[in-house]
Amino acid sequence: MAIGKTKIEAGAVCFALQYRALMPDQGVSIQVVGDLEGKEKELLRFDCFDQNPHYHYDPEHRNERYNLDKTTAGNALGWTLKQLRTQLPAMLKRAGCEDLANRLDCNLVASKLDQVEEAGRYMALKQRRTVTHNRGDPVIEAGNIRFGLEFRELTGDRGMAIHVMSDVAGQEIELLAFDCFEKGPHYHYGPRNQDVRLYWDTTVVPDPLAWTLEQFKTGKLPAMIERAGYPSIAAAMDRELVACKLQQEVEPKALAIRAAHVQ
Length: 263
Known about the structure:
alpha+beta, 2 domains, six-stranded antiparallel β-sheet, single chain, elongated
């Protein structure tokens, strides 16, 4: 992987940072870089991602990878900074860099890690990928949630979209978005939060709109809203009302809008 452009020199090593927005994950990556035989080399990498945080020993060659247990490790960036402050020499030795580990100036590294923390936390806060969609028209109320329907015409793609919304602290927030496009169909958990974006395999899901409506009708919506980061909204849903609205309004209107645009 390319070395991050934000670099903080710390004597024998350099800390390189970058924000990576992948599909479906995102977060800050911290690389520990050293000069070996005149060449800049990535020795350790900590991928402090939202969904699947992990770290690597010697990622360029051996690439020994370990996943973090978010339940026990807590915040991945905080966990990583703790390891860099307390375990860096041992981790470098395990990565095959014993000579470099022995040359570390521990006081210098400790002072530079304060800068690493400042830069990493800034990136985590300010460079997060989120997306803001239109709310759709019509918008169908269903208790504490609402469904926004629209046919989206984009450069190079088009298709039916369903937005699932609710009010959070007095502001309307999109909880889920289903972009049932012709070329790149995908859906979002928490577009304004973690924006976990998943693409459908159109070989196994040839009609993403039908798949979306089926998830709603079979009761998956509360679990999806909870995964998006809004458990209190999921718990307060009136499921009977939602089922009624889906049958009487959401499904027929979504199918009619699509039919009007697709000949």
